């Protein structure tokens, strides 16, 4: 492994801790909900809600976070850029909030019929608007290079959300048993309300903590805003298409599942099992935070290190396949992150995992249009992926339920990956090691088949886990032999070179 790859690996771990830790805590909290909420349909409602939040957050910020960074570095007065950006976001968010108030009941019915309660939407929209308004103050912290304060507030937000949830779902039932009169208001069947109230409380506190960044003289520059909107609009389109690729199945599922009474129950099963695949999403995101600075740093001026880009993608595939094998190999243990009533949906896990791996590879391959300033192609490919995803969902959800969602993600991400590869080789050729990628993919699929056969033929849990462990170790041994020789490892490599110099 080259020095550049070692630095990239270190940065991936560093950024992973800073960016993924809040998501990891939120992920654990969402798994906890399945154990405390009495109805699977409640999980379906929350799955649908937070898919909408992801889409609306991208829409309501309309690329202005990136626009702020671009113009704050470009203009002589960064405070004017911040002020103009914040006023724009605040104005459009308040307009959205007021309009939403007039359509709560019809919107609730459209989203989920009688299953959806209007006051849930009110809480959700309030949370969304507070978080959107806080986006630019958080961006200012990043611009001012204050990562510790930024990370502290973000992590504290998640910690507070967890504590509020624990109050409602652990403390309140106990207090109700001790003081029934004082806690007669508590009803576990209102679990969705308590989750949204917890989220709202934490969001308010988070905004108050970041609000000192608003202590400036506000100036609104209309001409500057027009320039920023022109710059940010393509980012908005790319962002919407990208987030829809990840969330559209959870948004449209209640509309196309034929049995309205069980639509949110099925979505709840899918949503919780999808969360197991978040392991791959976190790995991809951690790698992404390190990869973008890495590729731009190695593309300055006449310096163009295409071999490093190729190596980075190769190692991403190798370790992504390892995550796939470990997750599937130890699914007998991992599945207990979910209550038993959700285990019927475990069959989507390998499909979603591989789909997310394809998406991660697609992100790696996307450097060609970033380095050649042809970002419009990123939007085109994402839009095509979205059309394909929604088409598969609409056609197959009525017959195959959430399995259609899993396969839609798989095929859309795969096709986006293939398209990006061939277009990249035409516009910005990189010597990707397809032979190595193909070898490790085939090896992992053979080992996956072995794990699957052991599940079907072996009843003893410990025997199955032993087989899985042996197959995963085999994969690791092949990786070490072919791509990560022990002589290049820290400490171990120095020891081997010292004691066996003639063999090196």
UniProtKB/TrEMBL annotation:
Sequence intervals crossing the membrane: 12-37, 49-69, 81-104, 119-139, 151-171, 191-210, 231-248, 268-291, 312-338, 344-365, 377-400, 406-424, 436-455, 461-480
UniProt KW keywords: Cell membrane, Membrane, Transmembrane, Transmembrane helix
Major place of residence: membrane
InterPro entries recorded: Poly_Biosynth_Transport, Polysacc_synth
A Pfam family assignment: Polysacc_synt
Cell compartment(s), UniProt: Cell membrane
Gene Ontology cellular-component annotations: plasma membrane
Its membrane topology: Multi-pass membrane protein
Protein's name according to its UniProt entry: Polysaccharide biosynthesis protein
Species of provenance: Fermentimonas caenicola
């Amino acid at each position: 492994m080259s020095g550049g790859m070692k630095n990239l690996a270190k940065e991936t771990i560093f950024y992973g801790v800073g960016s993924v830790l809040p998501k990891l805590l939120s992920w654990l909290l969402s798994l906890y909900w399945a154990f405390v909420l009495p109805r699977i349909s409640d999980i379906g409602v929350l799955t649908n809600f937070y898919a909408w939040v992801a889409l609306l957050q991208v829409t309501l910020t309309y690329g202005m976070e990136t626009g702020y960074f671009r113009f704050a570095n470009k203009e002589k007065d960064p405070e004017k850029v911040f002020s103009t950006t914040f006023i724009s976001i605040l104005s459009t968010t308040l307009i959205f909030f007021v309009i939403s108030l007039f359509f709560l009941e019809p919107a609730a019915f459209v989203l989920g019929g009688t299953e959806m309660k209007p006051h849930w939407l009110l809480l959700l929209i309030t949370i969304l608007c507070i978080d959107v308004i806080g986006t630019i103050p958080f961006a200012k912290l990043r611009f001012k290079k204050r990562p510790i304060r930024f990370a502290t507030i973000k992590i504290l937000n998640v910690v507070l959300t967890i504590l509020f949830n624990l109050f409602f779902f652990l403390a309140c039932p106990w207090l109700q048993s001790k003081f029934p009169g004082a806690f007669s208001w508590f009803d576990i069947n209102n679990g969705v309300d308590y989750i949204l109230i917890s989220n709202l409380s934490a969001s308010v506190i988070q905004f108050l903590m970041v609000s000192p960044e608003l202590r400036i003289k506000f100036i609104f520059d209309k001409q500057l805003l027009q320039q920023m909107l022109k710059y940010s609009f393509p980012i908005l389109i790319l962002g919407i298409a990208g987030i829809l690729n990840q969330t559209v199945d959870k948004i449209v599922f209640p509309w196309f599942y034929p049995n309205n009474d069980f639509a949110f129950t099925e979505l709840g099963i899918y949503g919780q099992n999808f969360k197991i695949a978040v392991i791959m999403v976190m790995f991809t995101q951690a790698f992404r935070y390190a990869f973008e600075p890495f590729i731009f740093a190695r593309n300055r001026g006449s310096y163009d290190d295409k071999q490093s880009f190729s190596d980075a993608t190769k190692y991403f595939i190798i370790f992504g396949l390892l995550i796939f094998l470990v997750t599937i190999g130890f699914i007998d243990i991992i599945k207990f992150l979910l209550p038993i009533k959700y285990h019927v949906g475990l069959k989507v896990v390998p499909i979603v995992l591989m789909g997310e791996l394809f998406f991660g590879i697609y992100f790696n391959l996307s450097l060609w249009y970033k380095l050649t300033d042809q970002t419009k192609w990123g939007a085109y490919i994402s839009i095509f992926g979205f059309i394909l995803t929604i088409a598969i969902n609409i056609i197959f959800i009525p017959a195959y339920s959430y399995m259609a969602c899993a396969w839609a993600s798989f095929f859309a991400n795969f096709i986006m990956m293939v398209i990006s590869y061939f277009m990249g080789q035409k516009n910005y050729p990189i010597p990707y090691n397809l032979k190595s990628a193909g070898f490790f993919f085939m090896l992992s699929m053979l080992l996956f088949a072995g794990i699957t056969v052991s599940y079907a033929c072996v009843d003893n849990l410990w025997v199955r886990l032993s087989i899985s462990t042996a197959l995963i170790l085999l994969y690791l041994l092949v990786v070490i032999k072919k791509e990560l020789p022990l002589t290049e490892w820290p400490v171990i490599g120095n020891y081997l070179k010292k004691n066996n110099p003639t063999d090196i």
